[in-house]
Structures are given as structure tokens and as C-alpha cells.
Fold this sequence. Notes:
single chain, two-stranded antiparallel ribbon, elongated
Amino acid sequence: xxxxxxxxxxxxxxxxxxxxxxxxxxxxxxxxxxxxxxxxxxxxxxxxxxxxxxxxxxxxxxxxxxxxxxxxxxxxxxxxxxxxxxxxxxxxxxxxxxx
Length: 99
């Protein structure tokens, strides 16, 4: 399994290197309306955008995961409370009406 993961990492690295070599042309990048333009290689712009997307997606994933774990904790407390109530109701002694 480690060998397969290593081969995948090597393949992805080679694809990125080939992509960088093929896209060394400089492009002008404007980040905001009043900001001056920056000249940088195309592969840096594309890889930077991809990296920003990965970071943003990871952040959203962990925020959602945090919310869900908090909700799971609340639901576990609710289940425990209901189980305690059920146990309390099961242990109530019966009183027979005798006339």
C-alpha cells in the first residue's frame, strides 16, 4: 500500500513539474481594481489558485466537522438524559388498588 501511495505521489509531482515547464510564459495579474499589475509565470498563478482552493475547502471541511461533532455531543447528552428517565420510570413500583 505504501508503494502505491509513493508511486501516486511521484506521478503527481512529475505532472506538476511538466505543467510548470510547459507554462513558463509570464502573465499580468490584477488582484484588485486599483492595485498595480504583477507579472508572474502562468504556472505560479494556476498552482497558487489551486492551493488557495484546497486551503479554503479544507477550512470549510473542518468547520463543518466541528459543527457536526458539537451536534453529536448534544445528541448524546439528550440520549443519556432520556435513558436515565426511562430507567427511572421502569423502577417505579406498582401500587395495586385494594378495596
